[in-house]
Amino acid sequence: TMYGLTKENGAEAAPAMSDLAHVEQPIRKRVVIAVVAPADGAVMQALPAIDNVTFLVHNTLDGFANEPQVGDTNVVVFVAAGGDRDLLAPLFALTPSVEWIHSFFAGVDALHEFFTNTLGAKDIPVTNGKGAFSESLAEWVLTAILHFNKQIPRVMKNTAEKRREKFVMNTVAGKTLGIVGYGDIGASCARIAKHGFRMRVVALRNNPARHCEHADKVYGNDDKLALFKESDFVVCALPGTAATLNYCGAAEFAAMKPEGVFISIGRGLAVDEIALAAALESKSIAAAAVDVYKAEPLPESSPLWMAENVLLTSHNADFTADYFDLGWKVFQDNLRAFRAGATSEMPTAITTSLGY
To answer: I want to staple 178 with a disulfide (CB 3.0 to 4.6 A). Which of 99, 153, 207, 231 is the partner?
Structure first.
């Protein structure tokens, strides 16, 4: 239901060009999708109408239990913006026909308990919103780089003081951008930095043997300090998992250049915020830009608020005018594969044990 009414039989968006182009008719002609989200939320305002697809939208178990079609549910979509994650396990018991689970957002750390305790080893594909917001996040990263490279705080201070100061302007061409976590977001940052600003790009990922388009050099976890040492700007784009907790901490900040800038856009869990604030206070690094935090909103007691030369935004670097439309587009890309019976070809499939 959408706002209490079933939403179906709308016009489906034109299929994207993909490996599924050879499939003329979908195998699953009718699909019932349970969406765990507030029915009046902004995400649901952008809910697409798709031929032969029924959306059941609720944020309570009773809401779903009262739906005549709940037992026919093929797909569960979880929307972290207001969706009750504790509802997933009991909903799963109500929907024995579920064949696919989708997280509207890229981050799935909130679903760890559900993956472990309920989904377990069941052979049910899980996808996320990977790629929907990578372009805007990459733009924010380059904004942060230019903000500090071009000394915008200095420019603003001079403007406020009506002061004329003809200082030497820095450039980013030839500077090194280090990207910690080279997924879709990291690759988008690398593409713009390398081809738009002629920066050198070094990447860090679990498997350094994997191809990293746009990266000039790739490091593995054992060599992560080398990346921090040689980079002029370090971007943390890691997901939030047990393995990435405080991945960027005191040792990593100590390895950075004194003129280095640290940028955090992945998950706040991956950054030791106390160590980052200390590095800024001691001036062992020059500046930081942070969009994501361990606790959100960032508590007033956080030392980051008092740090000098820091750029803080409120997990809205990717919150664009088309934010929700982009999220549903990624969902529909996966839906086309699902309806064609090609679940192994879902474009944003994740490995639940890894958390990405």
So the answer is: 231
Of 113, 213, 281, 296, the catalytic one is: 296
Beta bridge partners of 289: 263, 311
As separate numbers, helices (DSSP H) first and strands (DSSP E) second, the chain gives 11, 12
- Report pLDDT for 16: 42
The two structure tokens encoding residue 220: 């593995």
pLDDT band at 29 (very low <50, low <70, confident <90, very high): confident
The pairing of strands 200-204 and 53-58 is unpaired
Q: What is this structure's pTM?
A: 0.89
Give the CA count within 13 Å in the CB-facing half-sphere of 274.
Answer: 2
CA-based nearest residue to 233, from 279, 175, 184? 175
In one letter, which amino acid is 128? N
CA 28, CA 236: separation in Å to the nearest integer?
40
Dist. CA 39–CA 55, nearest whole Å: 11
Active site residue 315: yes
Catalytic residue among 200, 267, 336, 339: 267
Minimal CA–CA distance to 221: which of 175, 271, 182?
A: 182
Q: Report the C-alpha gap between 284 and 175 in whole angstroms.
A: 19
Return all residues near 181 (Cβ < 8 A) that are at least 6 apart: 204, 205, 236, 237, 238, 239, 244, 266, 270
102 is catalytic: no
